Amino acid sequence: MGKVLQLHNDAERIAPSIKDGKVGLRAVPPKRRYNADVRSREYFMPDEAEALIAAAGKVGRHSHRDSTLLLLAYRHGLRVSELVALRWDQVDLTAALLHVRRLKNGTPSTHPLRGPELRALRRLHRASEQGVVYVFMTERGSPITTSTVRKMVQRAGELAGLGSPVHPHMLRHSTGYKLANDGHDTRAIQHYLGHKNIQHPVKYTEMSPQRFNAFWRN
């Protein structure tokens, strides 16, 4: 029975192909698994996000760069594409401001930089070569890639013992969840994350347990 099942599974991964008038077989990649089949949720709890950032800061030659990148992703809800495109002219270390340029037709905004991000960015800036344009660079002097960020997050997730596979966009979801859980206004969260449509941040307030704090008080 096991052999028959294996043959059936193998057959699902093979499809007919025609080349030079001859019928052959070609391999078909397995179907992508749904996120819900891999993880029970698509965001980190605050302690998990902090553990992920801390783990990134403990390994590799670029540990400070990596932990700073994840810290900004979490504190400011940045997409991977926004992180790798982040320039020093968007960072005002004197006024402690981050000028966020949103992609995917998002709304730009200006965020305050708090102590942890400001200290991390100042240290990264001091270590950067003069005239460097982008914040997160490789040893070869080019901006890091989205693929590098994905690998970075996967490695940090394993080191932090988070269990299920993780991906960078979970940090952006975690931003929305944290802000909603802290009781911030949905419209303010929308503007902070750069959403054009308020329906996107509504999902964070729907997930927040604070909505039910008045239930069953006795």
Can you put this structure into words, describing what you see?
- The chain is built from ten helices and five strands.
- It is globular, with a radius of gyration of 22 Å.
- The protein has helices spanning 2-12, 35-38, 46-56, 63-76, 80-84, 115-127, 146-159, 169-181, 186-193, 199-207; strands spanning 14-19, 22-27, 91-92, 97-100, 109-112.
- It has two domains: 2-35, no CATH class; 38-209, Orthogonal Bundle (hpI Integrase, Chain A), CATH 1.10.443.10.
- It has a three-stranded antiparallel sheet, with no helix packed on it. It has a two-stranded antiparallel ribbon with strand order 1-2.
- It is mainly alpha-helical.
- It starts with a helix and ends in an 11-residue tail after the last helix.
Note the main attributes of this structure.
single chain; 218 residues; mainly alpha; hpI Integrase, Chain A; 2 domains; 10% strand; globular; disordered N terminus
Topology readout:
Elements: H1 2-12, E1 14-19, E2 22-27, H2 35-38, H3 46-56, H4 63-76, H5 80-84, E3 91-92, E4 97-100, E5 109-112, H6 115-127, H7 146-159, H8 169-181, H9 186-193, H10 199-207
Antiparallel strand pairs: 1-2, 3-4, 4-5
Residue-averaged pLDDT, rounded? 83
Gap between N and C termini, in Å? Answer: 57 Å
Beta content: 5-15%
Q: The CATH topology of the largest domain is what?
A: hpI Integrase, Chain A
Order of helices and strands: HEEHHHHEEEHHHHH
Summarize the structure.
By secondary structure, this protein is mainly α. It is built from 10 helices and 5 strands. The chain folds into 2 domains: 34 residues, no CATH class; 172 residues, Intergrase catalytic core (hpI Integrase, Chain A, Orthogonal Bundle), CATH 1.10.443.10.
